[in-house]
Amino acid sequence: MARLIVLLALLATGADALTRATPSMGLRTWVKGKLGGGSKGTILTESPAGKKQDFLEASPYWDQSTVPVNTYKNKSPYTTKVVSCKRIVGPEATGETCHIIFDHQGKMPYWEGQSFGVIADGTNPKNGKPHTVRLYSIAASRYGDDMTGQTTSLCVRRATYWDPEMGKDDPAKKGVCSNFICDSKPGDPIKMTGPSGKVMLMPEEKADTDYIMVATGTGIAPYRSFIRRLFTETTPAGEAYKGTAWLFLGVANSDALLYDEEWQATLAKYPDNFKLDYALSREQSNSKGGKMYIQDKVEEYADEIFDRLGKGAVMYFCGLKGMMPGIQDMLKSVCDKKGLDYDEYIKDLKKKGQWRVEVY
């Protein structure tokens, strides 16, 4: 009710901001742009009345034979323009994460689950050569946050290094590309490559396929593109979808949650087709009394997950590579309890396209 009152108040006053409210965080600005507006800086929360997002589809829509790959390469990148760059975490979050919208004028088509490369301006002081490309998972559907097919979005955490001896961040060790992106302003030119990758695509031919999506931090990006395609936009894939999309997100605390308001809206509208679970390591405890990490939250639903995998579900993992050892150890333990050979089990899932990993 509180969230509804806030939204109604904003609309009534014409405030040019969409705010979010969560029990632990209160109110904070999420993204500039009036709800339902048409500017490229707007994040639409539903399709405009009478409009469908069906103009960037294959024929049939699930045919992956025409997925664009490496349209723009490192030596000949495409120059986009920044539309907006907004911090999307609260003051108590561990680090700063930004949502950045880019205008590509429809010249960089891509599919959900792919990545774009970004080349920071300037040169590497160590060798005097241009900075190398850095890959980031795309955080918007092919239609973009404004649903025009003209924009794309990235979810980027600013990489910094705290030097205990200096007692502050060491600027010499900061992530060049992530800081370049998070420091960007509307109108700034950004050189991008890609799109790249097919590992994280959704196999949409079977409309009843379950998608189990496991993420830590900014690994949420490809799943946001999935969920917008399936539930937020009016797409052929979304209209046909009969399965369950199950999102697991691991972050440190409530202030570090990413796109929570979007997930809550989807959950409220599609309770039979969308499931949501958070692992908040600094606020929750696992069954053993320790910190709640992503593998602990997934383990709570091990039986149901294995059952869904047995029926053809596709399981995705995206985030820092450090998440995988814990996930693998947990799954191996569950396999042992079920009398399954872990290596053979995962090998079979990979063979069937049910096990998809993109970590960095």
Automatic annotation (TrEMBL):
Q: Where is the signal peptide?
A: 1-17
| Top-rank taxon | Eukaryota
**EC number annotated for this UniProt entry:** 1.18.1.2
Looking at the record, the residues that make up the FAD-binding FR-type domain are: 75-202
Q: Origin organism of this chain?
A: Aureococcus anophagefferens
Supply the InterPro entries for this chain. FAD-bd_FR_type, Flavoprot_Pyr_Nucl_cyt_Rdtase, FNR, FNR_nucleotide-bd, FNR_plant_Cyanobacteria, OxRdtase_FAD/NAD-bd, Riboflavin_synthase-like_b-brl
This chain's protein is named ferredoxin--NADP(+) reductase
Keyword tags: FAD, Flavoprotein, NADP, Oxidoreductase, Signal
